[in-house]
Design goal:
By secondary structure, the chain is α+β, with helices and mostly antiparallel strands. It folds into 2 domains: 411 residues, Glutamine Phosphoribosylpyrophosphate, subunit 1, domain 1; 83 residues, Gamma-glutamyltranspeptidase, large (L) subunit, C-terminal domain (Serum Albumin, Chain A, Domain 1). It has 19 helices and 18 strands.
Amino acid sequence: MRQRAASLIATLVLIGGTAAPAAAAPVTAPTESHSPPKSPVATGFGGAVSSVDADATAIGLDALRHGGTAADAAIATAAALGVTEPYSSGIGGGGFFVYYDAATHRVLTIDGRETAPAAFTADVFSPGGVPIPFDQAVTSGLSVGVPGSPRTWATALARWGHGSLATALRPAAALARRGFTVDATFRQQTADNEARFRDFPATSAIYLPGGQLPVVGSRLRNPDLARTYDLLARRGVDELYTGQLGREIARTAQKPPVDPAATRNVRPGLMTTEDLAAYYAPFRAPTKVSHGGADVYSMGPPSSGGSTVGEALNILATADVPAMSETDYLHYFLEASKLAFADRNAYVGDPDQIDVPLHQLLSPGFAGERACLIKPGSVLPVQAPGSPDGTYTPCPGPAVAAGPEYHEGLSTTHLVTADRWGNVASYTLTIEQTGGSGITVPGRGFLLNNEMTDFTFGPAPGDPNLPAPGKRPRSSMAPTIVLRGGSPWFATGSPGGATIITTVLQVLLGRIDRGLTLEDAIAAPRASQRNTATTQAEPAFSGSPAGAALTARGHVFVLAPGSLPEIGAAAGVEFGPGGRLTAAAEPVRRGGGAAGVVRPG
């Protein structure tokens, strides 16, 4: 874990530049005829951006150079990711935005989670008590929730931005017109979705050019999305929620435009224009726990990210993690994750519709009650949830049977931005499955989410995550900002469905407790224990000496799913002495990320 990934991390700084002017100015897209190079680490001054994509990072840096704040850069980067990472993000999806405001010294969050249509009921995915086939839920209009990303962008810019939405969207629209360079990861993701993409002519026309898989090294253009961004720049996001674009979204979800020759059972959706018009992206208080002399802020319900990471950190705070051997540390990390996930599944959902015992879940007393179940030399079986009722008993026995693990899509993306004033944005956004629902709004160039599949497939009486009208499904997204001495230290986050929680937890522990640099904490081999009998792991984790020792202790490792057995794709930015910033991204996962700073040095 402490081994530096020297062969993976280049020292070349991604983007050069000069100091940003004092006032905001229109952002212009980079003029290169090809995508800029990727570097997973960059150090310097004046602002920083870290994402999975070099084009998006370059656009975010350009926003900073032209006087934009971390919010301006985050939205410009996110819009660009809608072009280059369309299977993971875009205006057809949602996400969670965590922001440190240097002027007020406060952390706030925006809940941009998708909402269920008003016609949703608890049995929508299990008519007559029988769950429908999961693939029929994923690739359907039924799975489409009201998109939250556009409202999130407008809300963040109104609160913290120097520029307009039009300014933030302009470079991404230009990128969509000129296209981006297809890499091996994008081609593989397209191949994984080829069969269902072919069933939707509007999707196939963009992502299967000429009816074929895109070729690595070719340029993929999306003029429809460019025109959609231009429309939102002129008319604002109300065009999507109450205008013609919204009517087209509702019609597409209700009657998915399937190829007449397709044999796929594509179920119609329930979303209406009234559902779109009712959408809002509220500010919510972040979760907060103190760990290792730092304050860790993240996203609260309806995401379970902040509460589950926070509970696990509190459990681990009862042990001397910095002094542990590598094997003991990883054992405690896996066991704390197991316990926190048991409680997450039992208690976390949309706080507007259920009573989430967040204060108790994040209390040191509850953490102590859960921590004493961990045995140094043996592995706990699948655990029942604890009782976060404010009355804590040392090492209570299980009170109820453990519930199942719930499905959550893996395709998401994360970005971090920081500006010269000390503002920080940590933003995770998604369309759920890789490729979302697979359904593109005809003529508009973006995929619709399948976020409603994050609800529990019933029947499951009392489950906090059952579908309901207007409800936001539980998420695991954990955009995180860490303060030390009241000032930003570092920010991080990751895609990966429910593995987001364990990835972020592992990065935090690596940086705070184990003495790793941020870039090494991000590069370290990963495992994800989510209260199951086996633990998903990358080969470099399970095959390491510590992995072998953990296996001897009773842990059972299985490879992470997918064409590549990798977990997450984290991004981060750290503040150093004298205003120096370090941007860090994945060296290899998801094809490697892109870190950059405004002024290298």
